[in-house]
Amino acid sequence: MDTDVLIVGAGPTGMTLANELLVAGVSTVLVDKLPQRSELSKAGGMQSRTLEALDQRGLLEPVLAAGDHPVIDGHFAGIPLPAHLARHRLPWRSVPQVAIEGFFEEHLAARGIHVRRDHELVGLAQDADTVTATFAHGATVHARYLVAADGAHSTVRSLLRVGFPGRPGTLTVVAADVRLSGVDQSVSHTWSDDGHWAALFPLGTDPQGRPLHRLALGGPGRSLPREVPVTEEEIRGGLRRVFESRVHLLELRYARRITNAARQVEQYRHGRVFLAGDAAHIHLPLGAQGMNTGMQDALNLGWKLGAAVHGWAPENLLETYHTERYPVGAAVLRNVQAQSLLMDWAGTRDPDVEALKAIFTDMVRLPEVQDFLADTLSGTAVRYPMPDTKTHPLVGRPSPDMDIPGSVRLHELLRSGRGVLLDPADTFAKVAALWSDRVDRVGQGADTEPMLIRPDGYVCWASNPDGSTHDLERALGCWFGEPR
């Protein structure tokens, strides 16, 4: 066995997973077919739940320092969501994907995990104990598990002959990284009277300190085949149709056409191979939900693979990766498809869609709708289907951060990659001792309810202060295996 886990694909999903496995003490090989890291911005934002997870690993401040990150307003289908900033302790931040990848590659390399580039996967086989991957230059890697994080056109998925059901792309829009004159750093969605539209959000600044933007353009007649190059004149013409003479192109850094295809694999696990990120689900890139969903796939899977490698994983723990993450991916596809319809990406000016958008815009003014959409887009609305989910409102949800006696925050306690048992009344010492090699018991005297938190930061048991020891023991066994 060359390594415990082989990760194919060194984008945000693959590198997040590599870091989780590093925290779990699992040997990892990370490969990518590209000879060097892409310098394209790609996704441009980080959701609240992803930011919380990075804080739980002590990586939040270093990631934010890796790129310019002004706080930006959220939106749903171009309709502003002011509650998006006020709703969460860590609101949406604008951090380009290129900065995230650059940070993780340096962070992992400093800890001994170097991306093996120019590794094109050409063969894949597995048996009861091993996955064997073969690469174009002749190298072979044997691993206990393999994770496909190799994007929408996943080679792993193709070699497995796994279907990718869903809807093919029916239109394309232009996405470009640009420098513009006549705009500020705020998010902007603008439509012309004839159905042409432009969407802008900030990407920070270039090395000379000049503001950069991600620009998307669409409308009647603008849906061209993906392989047709995007020209400067096309960008200038699109800006004129929407902004007239107010906004001008100063520099086109890169541009491509993206589609509204929406697909999701039916199973995230195939024996010893797991699919994550765009290898498992694709959709129109709105709100960087693809990147964030992929990173959260990795956060869910990492500690479970660690438990399996170390031998204490409960039966079916690895199966919960699919049962927990598949519904999340499906929900993201639904909200993106709804946004695409409301935004009228094709520029049809369909009166029925216009009527629906008018009513929806009025609804979004309601605080309850604002909160619902903010939680949905931020990733904080996720509730995993766990045993006893109905008995306590916190179970299945991300753990709240809080101060713990001893001048430490709960998120800081999760940086070990172990489970955490909050025991404010000092009630559960005896039962917790049986899992002390996997779970830290803390929080005596804290102003909180008893709570058991998984390594990925999700509450898997919570109780009143006089909660049942039997229920806690059952939860510990369910998520942390047999007692030592």
Q: Please summarize the sheet with the most strands.
A: 7 strands, mixed
CATH uppermost class of the largest domain: Alpha Beta
How many individual β-strands?
A: 23
CATH T-level topology of the largest domain: FAD/NAD(P)-binding domain
Low-confidence parts lasting 5 or more residues at pLDDT below 50?
none
Q: What class, by secondary structure content?
A: alpha+beta
Number of helices: 14
Summarize the SSE layout with pairings:
Layout (H helix, E strand, L loop, with lengths): L2 E6 L3 H12 L4 E4 L16 H9 L3 H6 L8 E3 L2 E3 L1 H4 L10 H13 L11 E6 L4 E5 L4 E9 L6 H6 L5 E2 L4 E10 L6 E4 L5 E9 L5 E8 L13 H12 L4 E12 L2 E3 L4 E2 L2 E3 L5 E2 L6 H22 L8 H25 L7 H14 L2 H12 L24 E2 L3 E2 H4 L5 E4 L6 H5 L5 E4 L8 E3 L5 E4 L6 H12 L4
Parallel strand pairs: 1-2, 1-7, 7-16, 20-21
Antiparallel strand pairs: 3-4, 5-6, 6-7, 8-14, 9-12, 9-13, 10-11, 11-12, 14-17, 15-16, 18-19, 20-22, 22-23
Helix pairs in contact: 1-5, 1-8, 8-9
